[in-house]
Amino acid sequence: MIGTWPTRSGANGSGQPEPRAIIDIGSNTVRLVIYGGAPRAPRVLFNEKVVAQLGLGVAHDGRLSADSMELARRALARFALILRDANIRHVQTVATAAVREAANRDEFIDLLAGLNLHPRVLSGEQEAEMSALGVIAAFPAGAGIVADLGGGSLELVRIAGGSTEGGISLPLGTLRLAEARHQRGGDLRKTVTQSLKQWDGGTAHTLYLVGGTWRALATFALEQDQHPLSDPHGIALSAKEARSLTERVLTLAPDRISDVDRVSSMRAVKLPDAAVLLQALLKRTAAERLVFSSWGLREGVLFSALPPLVRAQDPLLAGIAAFGQDHGIAPTLAAQVAGWTAGAIPAQHRGQERLRLAATTLALASMRIEPNLRNNQAVEWALYKRWITTTATERAMLAAAICGNGNCALPDELAQLATPEQLDGAYAWGLAIRLCRRLGAGSPQSLEASRLSIDGGRLLLTVAQSHRALVGQPTEKDLRLLAARLKLDRALEFSPAAKADRAAQLAQNEAV
Q1: How confident is the model at residue 5 (pLDDT cuts 50, 70, 90)?
Q2: pTM for the full predicted model
């Protein structure tokens, strides 16, 4: 553990988690990221980097160059002032390969002391562990080998069961790959293969790729496939697909690669070398599957500081609850609505409660948006916001539920991400949410006085006599739409014992 931060702040009386910041002094870039939101699912509030290329001099002669140190110092002075003016109290500063290997590292660290910055210089093993913890935070059930590609080094470490094992750091960062290619007559493949022999952590089915250059490679792959999603996080490729991708990269000039949106010219130049490295990694690890992770060292630093109970939280539900609260939706309300609508879930579609709760939160939050914007914006939340641990199929189902809540057509791109059955089921979730919120505006009293269930071949809405007036034309229409989607007959009953029935439904939902 690098440091600890309180997950809640009493200093400002808000009861909200305090912002946290990471200053990452890397071999290629110097970066400040300020995080807010739920500690288990941190949200980026500010992200700025400066390309100082500290590792360039180290790769050349073992020293940080004067120009790079000055460029980094100016960036860090700016970051320190931003943090001071924003009153960000919880800051961790870490430095990686370039600083730890530089012969003049003490000179650079002394330079930063004048800014009141005292970076912890991570060893290669510590850097590998922090990167792996970031992957574990993003993929709690993840198992395989993490490969974190930075400017100065490549970290390899095995993960399984939420733990790390056997991390090493190799001099195969993007700056060093370029240096090796120029110095050794272009025989980069031989250099990489020889260096990877130091990895004795065995093979694995899945290889998790961390680092900006890998993300650029994933972005390039998304563009090549005309994929409807834009976030490279969580994108998976088979080994065969990865080899085809690397061969494609190696045939293109960097300026052709940088034509792709969101692949910078700086990254485009590095992708061919990264492609050679990836081919060698696939062979060395015998991986059959690649997964790209946007969480790495910085998120690992945050994760390492969390208490065990917070680490154990579901990052999707932690993030969705914080997002809902930001839009005026209390987690208790979302849970109540999700519980009420559970009665309309056919047996074959059960077992997706966490995704239904997420969909319910987004659907309810969308109702706080101006009507002519809400459907499109909420669908964009589902598809493009970074929901950790959520697959492309699950994103499509979230979007389908939002469309059901708005009773609008599904976007065409959803058909590329999920099956018709999955989309149809999720659309029904949205219609059930629509019925619930329109029945009594989501009030606790209306939830207590009504019940939705599947009774034989009927979709049955039971309402207490005391709340009979809630049933009107909108209610009847919403019930008809949902029943038709579920291919059921519809029925409406009024009962003096609706509250008792409601208790029975809650018990049934709890059992499910």
Answers
A1: very low
A2: 0.89
